[in-house]
Specification:
CATH topology: Arc Repressor Mutant, subunit A
Structural class: alpha+beta
Number of domains: 1
CATH superfamily: Coenzyme PQQ synthesis protein D (PqqD)
Helix content: 25-40%
Number of strands: 6
Order of helices and strands: EEEEHEHHE
CATH architecture: Orthogonal Bundle
Oligomer: single chain
CATH class: Mainly Alpha
Number of helices: 3
Strand content: 25-35%
Distance between the termini: 16 Å
Length: 96
């Protein structure tokens, strides 16, 4: 489970492309394709460099009309899904 203090980054074992504002990602480890909607695609762009979950939430709240509770809940759900299919690396700065 990813925490709000965690730092996330896209793995190197993937290739992604923008398709009309949405992202298509190929996981090179398992050969599976994954798709992200416009907001997911924005998050994917942001995590090409290491980002804290709280910083990602700040950016999303500034760019989209979403409250903090929903932003955090939806962002953590997306990041947990990406971690489950090994598309992101997660480090918990609180545990370091």
């Amino acid at each position: 489970m990813i925490s709000k203090s965690a730092v996330v980054v896209a793995t190197k074992e993937q290739v992604s492309s923008d398709l009309a504002g949405e992202a298509v990602i190929l996981n090179l480890k398992n050969g599976m394709y994954y798709g992200l909607d416009a907001i997911g695609s924005r998050i994917w762009t942001l995590i090409q460099q290491p980002q804290s979950v709280s910083a990602l939430c700040d950016v999303i709240m500034a760019e989209y009309d979403v409250d903090a509770e929903r932003c955090e809940r939806d962002l953590l759900a997306l990041l947990n899904n990406l971690a489950e299919v090994q598309l992101i690396e997660v480090s918990d700065v609180a545990a370091a």
